[in-house]
Design goal:
Blueprint (H helix, E strand, L loop, with lengths): L3 H33 L2 H36 L7 H36 L7 H30 L3
Helix pairs in contact: 1-2, 1-4, 2-3, 3-4
Length: 157
């Protein structure tokens, strides 16, 4: 019979990979399409960025701390271990950055879609304000996720 610990650990790694991969991929495409100034492309990409966050990132973000707590408990790792509490602190920090970003992405998607349907050749100022905020919070959130990966692997005590 397969070891439950190894299955949960594998799923934990996969969910971390989904958070990192989806985050990096969607950020890259939205970042790049915004530099194209092509309203139809911005409407399409922003739609799929929102869907990817809903389909992939959200379930992984829910599973990640639950599986992490289960794994730590299973191996009797003290919650006072530096890497555990620092990982959770960074995860919360990244989440606090991510939540407004998701709201802004939805607003950006709606603005781009409305502009596309209206045949506009440029997006309004509000879109670009949201895009700047989205980008500004994306950098620290992404950095926190990278540090979390190192903490999960290195486990400094």
């Amino acid at each position: 019979m397969m070891d439950t610990y190894l299955i949960v650990k594998t799923l934990h790694i996969l969910s971390a990979t989904l958070i990192m991969g989806t985050g990096l991929g969607t950020a890259f495409y939205l970042f790049m399409v915004n530099r194209s100034n092509c309203v139809p492309a911005q409407a399409v990409v922003s739609k799929w960025v929102c869907k990817a966050d809903w389909w992939f990132t959200t379930p992984a973000v829910i599973f990640q701390p639950l599986s992490g707590l289960w794994l730590a408990h299973h191996i009797r790792m003290p919650m006072s271990a530096t890497w555990i509490w620092l990982t959770f602190a960074l995860f919360i920090f990244a989440g606090l950055c991510w939540l407004p970003v998701v709201v802004w992405q939805i607003q950006m998607r709606n603005i781009a879609n409305e502009a596309y349907k209206a045949g506009e050749s440029k997006l309004p100022k509000r879109y670009w304000q949201l895009a700047r905020r989205w980008e500004t919070l994306g950098y620290p959130a992404f950095t926190a996720v990278i540090v979390i990966f190192f903490l999960m692997v290195l486990k400094p005590m």
